Amino acid sequence: MTALRIVDPGTVLGQALSDASPDLMRHLLGTVINSLLSAEADAVCGAQWGQVSPERTNQRNGYRHRDLDTRVGTIDVAIPKLRAGSYFPEWLLERRKRAEAALISVVATCYLLGVSTRRMDKLVESLGITNLSKSQVSRMTADLDEQVAAFRTRSLAEAGPFTFVAADALTMKVREAGRVVNAVVLVTTGVNADGHREVLGVKVATSETHEACNAFFADLVARGLSGVRLVTSDAHRGLVEATAANLPGASRRRCRTHYAANLMSTCPKSSWPAVKAMLHSVYDQPTAKDVHAQFDKLLDAVADKLPAVAEHLDTARADLLAFTAFPKDLWRQIWSNNPNERLNREIRRRTEVVGIFRDRDSVTRLVGAVLAEQHDEWAEGRRYLGRDVLAKSRLNLIPNTEEVDHQPLALTA
Length: 413
Fold this sequence. Notes:
alpha/beta
């Protein structure tokens, strides 16, 4: 039995060359694919299309068209329909539902780098792919989910202890139940035992409530977060209570930049330049003792004329000057949250092109992928803190105690 000729090579090639189309490869690939589908459908029917044969078990009944995205462009695939039963080429459309793996990788990378859907549409259009929708982009980038999940749930025990930890939150717009709501992205970073910074965790929550923050930090502890001596965050009640409950041995530190903005809201505009200058002079002192002494002078200077400012300063004193319990070589790295602010700006740059996220999973996907990328850059870069300075910061400071004259206890019967 001779093999059936699926396509006449001479006719097809002659037609393609005569057309002189710039999409020659796409046309040829489409012709080959449709011819293969037609031949396979004839095999299912038991005879070729239009042929009378006693071996025929089914008949053809038109076509249904599907778009197949390939590296040479979008091809109109004509899938034969049968009068009885169905025929579907799983070998073609199941594995390559929307695009080849290389194209999916390109789109996923562009999405991660913060390229808007409109720009990605122009990019893939130059490759021959037409009408790339937002939903298609989201589905094509779904392969990032597995990588992000592995990153978010990795063990922290081997890299610890994490002496210094910083926590912050960002607000994203998410569509839920037909409404656009604000969701909070909790992000935590830390300095590992080798002196490199790490992204410890990321979680999308409804708001910075005590329950959400507590669950977030409880998960970090369960994954191996330990040895924390200082936590830098804002004064949000949820974060403060969560860190106190899950990291009982750590002191809390308020960012000097954020605190200055909070203090300015309670200070008269005309007095703010003088108060700001005195506050900065506190950080310029050479020793911890001088820092506290200068802070006392600041309180004395504003106590009479600006009682609200004095009360604000006195309440925040312990959190604001927590950095003085550590070696001076570390002060510049730990007395503000500026490193995390730079990380937040990078996240914003990637997420602003999205605008409103489809759901919380899409927020986790994009923000988690950005943080994983930043985590790798930190791991390959230079140390954020030296090992010797980290070792000094982990020494327990034992306060001086008065000597007590212990008298021998009398024996009793």
